[in-house]
Design a protein that fits this description.
about 170 residues, mainly alpha
């Protein structure tokens, strides 16, 4: 009888130990870690770090860390040339923190990069309202204005060219 009790106790204590180990692994090993993503980001593995930052943002309850993780995921996607994902995440950061100047500026810069000049102008205006006197942002905004003017003049010149060609053909 004692040997049966000993075997049962031994069996349950082994099972309990396995459950504790599995639980510890799950808690520490399966959750995406901010530090892990940050390390990958610093090593230049932007795509991998973006995925981990996003997963971390979904698993954490700390609002400040969540916002920071989403911002870094956006940065990582931007650096890996996945601009649509980066823009989506910058906008997500700005929903929770509309005065986040880093996100405001990076969103404006990225809109300019993908040639969405009208949206970029608006984004620079919002940023400059928060950070007046940022000369680089002013210069980039002027670049958007020039690009829009260039597009207008290019369209006018190209349509004028078609009209000239049509008149030439009619002669």
């Amino acid at each position: 009888m004692n040997s049966e009790r000993f075997r049962m106790r031994n069996k349950y204590s082994s099972l309990f130990t396995l459950v504790l180990i599995a639980l510890a692994f799950y808690v520490t090993g399966c959750k995406p870690k901010f530090e892990e993503a940050d390390k990958l980001f610093k090593q230049g593995y932007y795509r991998q770090s973006a995925i981990i930052f996003e997963e971390f943002s979904k698993s954490t309850k700390d609002k400040k860390l969540k916002s920071e993780a989403i911002f870094f995921a956006a940065e990582a996607y931007r650096l890996s040339d996945e601009y649509d994902k980066a823009l989506r995440l910058y906008e997500k950061v700005l929903k929770t923190d509309p005065k986040n100047t880093k996100a405001l500026l990076m969103r404006a810069n990225l809109l300019k990069k993908v040639e969405k000049y009208r949206e970029a102008l608006d984004a620079y205006d919002v940023y400059l309202a928060e950070v007046p006197g940022d000369t680089m942002a002013d210069i980039r905004k002027q670049g958007c204005e020039l690009a829009l003017q260039d597009r207008k003049s290019t369209r006018l010149n190209s349509s004028h060219g078609y009209i000239s060609y049509a008149v030439f053909c009619l002669k």
